[in-house]
UniProtKB/TrEMBL annotation, chains A, B:
<dbReference type="InterPro" id="IPR043132">
    <property type="entry name" value="BCAT-like_C"/>
</dbReference>
<dbReference type="InterPro" id="IPR036038">
    <property type="entry name" value="Aminotransferase-like"/>
</dbReference>
<dbReference type="InterPro" id="IPR001544">
    <property type="entry name" value="Aminotrans_IV"/>
</dbReference>
<dbReference type="InterPro" id="IPR033939">
    <property type="entry name" value="BCAT_family"/>
</dbReference>
<comment type="similarity">
    <text>Belongs to the class-IV pyridoxal-phosphate-dependent aminotransferase family.</text>
</comment>
<dbReference type="GO" id="GO:0004084">
    <property type="term" value="F:branched-chain-amino-acid transaminase activity"/>
</dbReference>
<keyword id="KW-0028">Amino-acid biosynthesis</keyword>
<keyword id="KW-0663">Pyridoxal phosphate</keyword>
<keyword id="KW-0100">Branched-chain amino acid biosynthesis</keyword>
<dbReference type="InterPro" id="IPR005786">
    <property type="entry name" value="B_amino_transII"/>
</dbReference>
<keyword id="KW-0032">Aminotransferase</keyword>
<dbReference type="InterPro" id="IPR018300">
    <property type="entry name" value="Aminotrans_IV_CS"/>
</dbReference>
<protein>
    <recommendedName>
        <fullName>Branched-chain-amino-acid aminotransferase</fullName>
        <ecNumber>2.6.1.42</ecNumber>
    </recommendedName>
</protein>
<dbReference type="Pfam" id="PF01063">
    <property type="entry name" value="Aminotran_4"/>
</dbReference>
<comment type="pathway">
    <text>Amino-acid biosynthesis; L-isoleucine biosynthesis; L-isoleucine from 2-oxobutanoate: step 4/4.</text>
</comment>
<keyword id="KW-0808">Transferase</keyword>
<comment type="function">
    <text>Acts on leucine, isoleucine and valine.</text>
</comment>
Amino acid sequence: MTQSLLQDIKVTKTENSKISQVDFNNLSFGSTFSDHMLVCDYKNGTWEAPEVIPYQPISLDPSSKIFHYGQSIFEGMKAYKDENGDVFLFRPLDNFKRLNISAKRLAIPELPEAFFMEGLKTLLEVDKNWIPTTQGSSLYIRPFVFASGKGFHASPADAYKFIIATAPSGSYFAGKVKVLIEEKYSRSANGGVGYAKAGGNYAGQFYPTQLAVAKGYNQVIWTDDNKHEYIEEAGAMNIFVRINDSLLTAPTNDRILDGITRKSIIEIAKQEGINVEVRPISVTEVVNAAKNGSLKEMFGAGTAAVISPISVFGYQGTDYTLPELDNDYASSLKKRITDIQYNRSEDPFGWRIKL
Amino acid sequence: MTQSLLQDIKVTKTENSKISQVDFNNLSFGSTFSDHMLVCDYKNGTWEAPEVIPYQPISLDPSSKIFHYGQSIFEGMKAYKDENGDVFLFRPLDNFKRLNISAKRLAIPELPEAFFMEGLKTLLEVDKNWIPTTQGSSLYIRPFVFASGKGFHASPADAYKFIIATAPSGSYFAGKVKVLIEEKYSRSANGGVGYAKAGGNYAGQFYPTQLAVAKGYNQVIWTDDNKHEYIEEAGAMNIFVRINDSLLTAPTNDRILDGITRKSIIEIAKQEGINVEVRPISVTEVVNAAKNGSLKEMFGAGTAAVISPISVFGYQGTDYTLPELDNDYASSLKKRITDIQYNRSEDPFGWRIKL
Ligand SMILES: Cc1ncc(COP(=O)(O)O)c(C=O)c1O
Ligand SMILES: Cc1ncc(COP(=O)(O)O)c(C=O)c1O
């Protein structure tokens, strides 16, 4: 982080910092917002210069297309502070690339790399003191783009807003999760937008998730929309299944988000000598493995929750309980990835970026 | 429309009407907005009293869930003015019911009927002069609901806004449309949200539609996401196919919007003695009918475009041209439905509601 970046991007600082009101020892996830945000407007066919301004409300015409046609995409990443107060990002370029993959599918103009990367670094420099240091906490970073252009006509907007806002956050889930393997509802279609981080993919999950919660589960595991035969992913996590000593995860496709945690876990596991199989995982295979005792672990993997072990999965009215292991993959893989993220270990993969 | 309604719903009128700036003889679709809007907030577990206020920007926190998770739904309807200046709505209760069907699927709290119906009537009374009378034009009405509640957590919001805004509008499409039968991309999944008027369903169509436009088509005809074997619907229209003298349309299901124009056309056609078949329509059947000359017509049906005749459909690199008929169903059905809507004929079905 050098002075030059701050010179490139205009920064207007708040006169009323809220930081003294925040209890950094009791942070929930994504509900306290830092003092500043990066904003960047797309108008007349071009992305204008990004600026850092005080976190503040956005004013939009009622006909702005975000309200009507769901033209919105986002990313989720974190900034980590180590014991020396140095700040790190984890594979941020992959978030930038994925944002543009999402942009293309949602007919949103792609962003220049420098606007994203330099904008992010400038914002983090300005709000450095908002990055928490308590165990397990981090600064959750939310880059997002939405259609601000006007008109009640179902067609792409002519104006967009790119914003990065941040939220000092504690952990996403407390403890293990109970999941329900979905047999009726679906998250995404073949040829649809499931591989994009598009707003609409999330809203569609809320109702089926509420139904699952009413039955005592925390999360839904999505299956293919055709026959609900294969396990795909969870609400905001990719899914791993350990059968005997092999670690399985579904291949990404146009229905599944290409998670950065997922691909990092695959690489770390391989380096640890674990047999990793990236292939379709049928529900039948998982149920049979649960019955014959070869199913050892299931866990979700994503930026927000890191690794989230599953204690129970429900399917067709039956609950299957996962065993409690001493040397589980979930714990050791979580330690490996968070040690890299928080600069507590070597980074043989070159994933960590110092601000 | 009685005075009592205006007494029930608080009305704040604008001091700067824009109506004198509008050229009512040259209206495009959905891009000029009337002076007022209805707003209604959901907070603390309840929908608060709706109000009519001047059309104005909406101010939202950057973490409002509409920006991130696509939690939004809408409706599309029209107000028609007859020669005497009387104002009519077409099956408005069906739009209200569908809005609540969409709300349920998107985990949005359902609206009380009176808020929708009385709110709409009050708004139209206030902006009565915005309803155009030139041939083919009407006041397009856009009720919508979106998540205003805050937080970077993929879960339903705790606050929502219901708004009705209106736009005096000319016709949606000029002339016949060329359509492309989609073989790769999809609009919706089995078990997904395709039957809801959810924002995300529209954004996902923009990119495939852009690709079709680049090839010289106006619209995509969506097919099932599994094998792209069956014709489902178009961007904002249901699809009808005439083979010999039978009129075919796909049954609605969880991937297809239950269009009010579609179901009205089915009833009118039946009353006219046309053989109507509501059943899956395979692409193969349509292509074969085009080849052997039994394919007489194809048209889209929806509130915005009313009935939109198709001149050409493209499939697997071949364009199939529809014949020009003298006594086409599209024209006579369009006349029947618009005559009912604009109070130019009897309404044997009881669809028209006078304000
Ligand atoms: C649908 C979905 N799947 C998986 C993930 C995990 O992706 P990542 O590891 O890049 O955070 C996320 C969250 O970002 C997600 O929203
Ligand atoms: C996806 C979709 N299909 C069909 C329709 C037609 O429905 P209606 O006739 O109720 O306007 C619409 C438009 O409202 C639509 O958005």
